[in-house]
Write a structure and sequence with these properties.
The protein has 222 residues and is mainly alpha-helical. It has 8 helices and no strands. Helix 1 crosses helix 3 and helix 3 packs parallel to helix 7.
Length: 222
């Protein structure tokens, strides 16, 4: 019998959560360092403390997006996997805190991160309802919605809610004239979102053909 890479399901969950947190940090850092993102966000006019704040919001965005994917009701997985994903979702904030601790971050800042993650998770979860309602109203104005339309709207809701909220926080609510910044962030978050959902669903690509079409349609509207 081959040796399993993990001795328990808990050990596997801890390792997976840590890997997902690292993926979120990498995606956030790539966007933060992106020249076009910095130009659109007027980085040259902002202080270093504002740069740090924006990075924290980006990191929050990717972490929360992972959590929203793991709890998505339309995720195409069996009941056992769904239970595992629910546990995995709860481990994401703790895994992030543990990684910060391993980097020598002081306990007071760890507490701040815990508060921020909890606050943003609640905020973006609540915003999903408004995003879904707005999307249904927009789609319904063009034609009568069918089940396929509703499925595509549901797929888009998590990434839209996170992108909208993060954009507002990054510009401190001053969104006028920042549409291109929002679209650039949404595109980055969407790529991360699609890649993770495909992985979580075991490589079942078919539903994401529809999702990618819906995302392109959304970006054209903005």
């Amino acid at each position: 019998m081959k040796n399993l890479p993990f001795e328990s399901l808990e050990e596997m969950a801890e390792s997976t959560a840590s890997g997902l947190v690292q993926a979120a940090a990498g995606a956030a850092f790539d966007l933060f360092q992106d020249k076009k993102f910095r130009r659109l966000a007027d980085f040259d006019k902002l202080s270093k403390s504002e740069h740090d704040r924006i990075f924290n919001e980006l990191l929050c965005a990717y972490l929360i997006l992972i959590m929203l994917i793991l709890e998505a009701p339309d995720l195409r997985v069996d009941s056992n996997t769904r239970n595992y994903f629910s546990d995995l979702k709860d481990r994401i904030p703790r895994a992030h805190i543990e990684q910060l601790k391993s980097l020598g971050v002081e306990s007071e800042h760890l507490d701040d991160w815990q508060v921020l993650l909890d606050m943003r998770y609640k905020e973006y979860s609540k915003d999903k309802h408004d995003v879904r309602a707005a999307a249904m109203q927009l789609e319904g104005a063009e034609k009568e919605l069918d089940l396929d339309d509703l499925a595509k709207i549901q797929l888009l809701v998590p990434v839209q809610a996170v992108a909208i909220g993060t954009h507002q926080h990054n510009v401190r609510g001053k969104t006028k004239g920042k549409d291109e910044l929002f679209k650039y962030m949404l595109a980055s978050l969407s790529r991360f979102y699609v890649e993770l959902r495909i992985r979580f669903e075991g490589g079942k690509v078919t539903p994401f053909t529809k999702l990618q079409v819906a995302l392109k349609k959304l970006l054209r509207r903005l």
